[in-house]
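User: Before I run my own analysis I want an independent prediction to cross-check against. Here's the chain; please return only the structure tokens and, at the end, one sentence I can use as a sanity check.
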Amino acid sequence: MNTAPVRSSRALRHGRHWARRLALQALYQWDLARQRPAEIVAQFAEDDNWSRADTAYFGELVRGVTAQADALDARIAPYLDRPMAEVDPVERAVLRIATYELLHRLDVPFRVVIEEAVSLAAKFGAEGGHRFVNGVLDRLARELRPFETGGS
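Assistant: Structure tokens:
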């Protein structure tokens, strides 16, 4: 039995998981310090977990989110119960990453996007923040991916 495609798929998921995890940290840093994305990407290339990450995906997330932060925030805002500036910085970064993926990475199923975002929010965000992220992204995914979610 050939298991190469399974391993390849598993490796891809693992690498993207680490890319999202590092991107979350990088975008948190960018949000607070407004350091240039290229500097942040170079800095994270020194991280101990860099070899675990899909580095191209990491770069895409960091550059894409920083370049489109205002547009992403505008997509997210209707689903928030407070202004984006009042959202916890970790949860704000998670929401931006997931929204970027929902919009631009149609190869990633919406359920994977939401699951990864909720996992990151649970690990790094405020207590209960993962429920907030899940609720926002569930509604947002119905708008951005109606062909997948059955939403309108």
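Sanity check: The chain is about 75% helix and 0% strand.
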